[in-house]
Amino acid sequence: MSTHRVFVARLNGLSVFDPLGDEVGRVRDVVVTLSGRAASHGPRAIGLAVEVPGRRRVFVPITRVTSIDAGQVITTGLVNMRRFEQRAGETLVVGELFDRQVTVSDGDVRQPAVVEDIAMDQQRGGDWRLTKVFVRKGRDEAPRRGLLRRRRGETLLVDIEAVDGLQEQGPPQAATALLEAYEDLKPQDLAEAVHELSAKRRAEVADALDDETLADVLEELPDDDRLEILTHLATDRAADILEAMEPDDATDLLSDLPEEVREELLALMEPDEAADIRRLLTYDENTAGGLMTTEPVILGPEASIAEALALVRREEMHPATASLVYVTRPPHETPTGRLLGSIHIQRLLREAPHQPVGSILDTDIDPVPPAASLGVITRALATYNLVALPVADPEGRLLGAVTVDDVLDHILPDDWRESDPTESDDV
Q1: Contact in structure between 405 and 295 (CB atoms under 8 Å)
Q2: Which CATH class is domain 185-282?
Q3: In this structure, how many other beta carbons lie within 10 angstroms of the beta carbon of residue 275?
Q4: What is 297-411's CATH number?
Q5: 1-184: in CATH 3.30.450.20
Q6: pTM for this one?
Q7: Which sequence ranges are marked TM in the entry (predicted)?
Q8: DSSP 3-state of 361
Q9: N or C: which end of the chain has fewer CB within 10 A?
Q10: How far, in Å, CA of 127 to CA of 355, rounded?
Q11: Which residues pair with 427 in a beta bridge?
Q12: 188 near 55, Cβ under 8 Å?
């Protein structure tokens, strides 16, 4: 007999607290078993996938959950901080079952439907069983880009026993309900969620995301994942995504493709965007030229501080890129005229908005050449206490800027996203 019912969509995003009242993380999914010995008495929840600081997901056994109530989850005992790895026989409700196409039986009538939510009930013995499925009648078409709004159609709450198809992946799924569950995530966190999905589900999510969001997500994914997603996309859309990415990230991605595929994509891109990437492809990836972005914040000396602040305030501007404004002679697109100097954002905030940027230049920050090694770049960043650094050619023209996040990506091990940064497995 059930003593408590929880819908997974409402559980997603709730804070998880330890017995002392300290927040451990947030619920991002429910791990269930749908078949096999563990599910001999029906599908059941075996744990929660919890997002902890550091954008990692850990597994919290359902036996450690003492309370799900009042908008929070309370656990008991230590939480193992090892990264969650899905095992054979385990299914993620949000990641895999939401949007799944199933068949619902109503007496002798069977009709197609799409899963929008699943309810789990706590039994008197403490187990959590999957009992109800909230479905929308009808059959989805193939996933469509940007499909993020609630879909139309009659909805039903049915017993899980009346639903066939939960265990089969079947045809391509949309990603509407899944992305609605993750709508509060920043691109970095959404990338972590996408990374945890199966290859099939990653492709379906990519099909549903708009170009700008997908570009942001690809910039945060491991190389294998983003290469897999890009090669799944239609060629025209892949070119659009590359245009929306930061030039240095797009270059890294293109460099992993066969030359004929790379050239096909570059030919489909806007000429200016393609030209920047072609230039970056000529540099070794472990040099300043290979690491730099070709789109730093650049102004002429007569521009006002107010103009500079307006540029660095833009939402799409990466914080590290926005930390320094570069002042050059015309032209103000890379490669620019002669680099006159740079200004840190903190200095901009301390000066009068009407003042020209040319009057407060910092000329002590020496640019590095495009052939500069990682060692030279890291020493320069440390010397000036900077998170970005100009890259210039022998004539003093600004070619781009190297940011500390790109340096770290090349210094850290290839599997740094997968490794556990904690010294202890339990907290």
Answers
A1: no
A2: mainly alpha
A3: 14
A4: 3.10.580.10
A5: no
A6: 0.81
A7: none
A8: coil
A9: N
A10: 67
A11: none
A12: yes
